[in-house]
Design a protein that fits this description.
The strands form 5 sheets. A 9-stranded antiparallel sheet has the order 1-2-3-4-7-8-9-10-17. The chain has a two-stranded antiparallel sheet with strand order 5-6. It has 3 domains: about 180 residues, no CATH class; about 50 residues, no CATH class; about 170 residues, no CATH class. It is about 30% helix and about 35% strand. It is α+β, with helices and mostly antiparallel strands. Helix 5 packs across helix 12, helix 6 runs parallel beside helix 9 and helix 10 packs antiparallel against helix 11.
Length: about 500
């Protein structure tokens, strides 16, 4: 994999914002001539509230108002599967041949080779084109919200193309599919302060419509437990229609005698009284796979969340929020780095960064799918990510002395595996690399719309806990006995 990335940002008086990105990706898993993919993206925003004609509203109730729009493309090769450079279907464009075939030749069997599958040299990147518009607002400096509409069309989807038995070769991969996602997302948050107590409530609502638009010339395609059908959502269950239960064994036997001898009969069981009675839905006089109907998709159209939160204002609350073990680990780093001298700015910066990453990783574990580590381990992964800066030693050497899992070590050192994707997502969010953020969040199963709210909640908690913990150390230092001067022992040491 080889990539080049460029970005241009323009900001005029904080009112007119523009960003252009361009990336070029090359993968050896595609054939020469199709390895490079070029993916541009553009976004712009107008802070209307900064205009002079909005001054009256800005000073009264409309604290901020911004409209924005974006268009961009991303490439994807994940559908090629895993494989390895030395095994598996790592190069699905390259025809390969198998040894060990025996052929009759000249009256005897001769060892030869054969082609097991068909390959398409024209195979190339999937492309996702997304455009969207949105509005951000703040009312009375307390109520913030955003409304977004998006439209994403994925074309040249890499799919396994089924072939008839007469073809004599296995299914092959090709760019044959197209799919569309469109929807709306609404986020609202309210924050206020009463005396020493800070209160916050936030919520999110999202609607997504998914439609398969092309399956490479066929209308329907089996996909494990699901069925793909043009015009229907992906990951849809296709089921047999029923009209009740068999009331007796005799009724079940008569039904089975009518349909079981026909071609395509799908059931391998004997039905009894109380079993579901299936219907010839298409009216062809038999029951087969053609009678299945679209039921629903496993992916919800509507999603929402609602959260209440308050800021931790005591060490006890911090322990409850983070867990005593995690807090002890961080305090150890803080005290070790401080080591009897005032903390310098760079040390403080890296400590706060480690704490922020730890919180962000831990919170994202609530949404990430198929993770090999626990939430606590994700916390440690984020916290240890800056150890090389704090201790001034190579991170690889440090991790050899730290009892963390191999998954965490691989993530921190090489960004490998699911943990590496989570760590890379955190780093991409810090850098504002929105293309990578979108890609990694999708791969991890994390809803893209929750990232901003989760990040700011973590930032708020880190700031408060930092203040409390550093104040605790300051109070501890103030209460400690002063060192004796001129070599004289203190009263306690005599």
């Amino acid at each position: 994999m080889l990539s080049y990335f460029g970005r241009i940002n323009y900001d005029y008086k904080g009112k007119y914002l523009f960003e252009a990105n361009f990336r070029a990706d090359a993968s050896s898993r595609f054939a020469p001539g199709n390895r490079w993919g070029y993916f541009p993206s553009f976004s712009g925003a107008w802070r209307i509230s900064e205009e002079s004609f909005m001054e009256t509203l800005r000073d009264s109730w409309l604290s901020s108002l911004k409209i924005r729009g974006s268009w961009g493309q991303l490439g994807n090769q994940d559908a090629l599967g895993n494989g390895t450079p030395t095994g598996g279907d790592y190069y699905p464009w390259m025809n390969t041949y198998n040894l060990g075939a025996n052929y009759p030749f000249g009256g005897s069997l001769v060892t030869g080779y054969y082609q097991g599958s068909y390959k398409m040299a024209s195979l190339s990147w999937e492309k996702a084109t997304t455009w969207g518009i949105g509005i951000d607002f703040t009312l009375f400096n307390k109520l913030t919200g955003s409304i977004d509409y998006y439209n994403r069309k994925t074309t040249d989807i890499i799919m396994n193309v089924s072939v008839p038995k007469e073809f004599a070769l296995g299914a092959y991969k090709d760019n044959v599919g197209a799919m569309k996602n469109s929807g709306i997302e609404v986020q609202l948050a309210y924050n206020d302060t009463w005396n020493d107590w800070t209160f916050g409530v936030s919520g999110n609502f999202a609607y997504n419509k998914n439609t398969i638009e092309n399956l490479g010339g066929v209308d329907r395609m089996a996909d494990g437990s699901f069925m793909r059908e043009v015009g229907s959502p992906i990951n849809s269950w296709f089921v047999y229609r029923t009209d009740g239960f068999f009331q007796s064994d005799e009724e079940a036997a008569a039904w089975q005698a009518k349909y079981s001898a026909m071609d395509g009969y799908p059931f391998g069981q004997d039905f009894k009284a109380g079993d579901l009675r299936y219907v010839d839905a298409n009216g062809d006089g038999k029951i087969s796979a053609d009678d299945r109907e679209l039921y629903r998709t496993k992916d919800p159209k509507f999603t929402f969340y609602f959260a209440l939160r308050h800021r931790a204002t005591t060490i006890h609350q911090a322990i409850v929020t983070l867990g005593l073990g995690q807090l002890k680990q961080w305090i150890y780093l803080l005290s070790a780095s401080n080591a009897g001298q005032e903390m310098d700015a760079s040390t403080e910066e890296f400590l706060k960064l480690s704490f922020m990453r730890a919180n962000f990783c831990s919170e994202l574990m609530k949404y990430a799918k198929d993770m090999p580590i626990s939430k606590s381990e994700a916390y440690l992964m984020g916290m240890f990510s800056t150890l090389n800066h704090l201790i001034d030693a190579p991170l690889e050497e440090i991790l050899e002395e730290v009892p963390v899992s191999n998954e965490i070590k691989a993530a921190l050192l090489r960004k490998e595996g699911r943990c590496g994707q989570l760590y890379e997502l955190v780093l991409s969010y810090e850098a504002g690399n929105w293309n990578e953020i979108t890609r990694l969040a999708e791969e991890l199963g994390i809803p893209n719309q929750i990232l901003t709210s989760v990040y700011f909640i973590c930032m708020e908690n880190v700031n408060v806990l930092w203040e409390q913990l550093t104040n605790a150390y300051s109070e501890q230092d103030a209460s400690a006995p002063a060192p004796a001067e001129n070599g004289e022992a203190s009263e306690e040491s005599k």
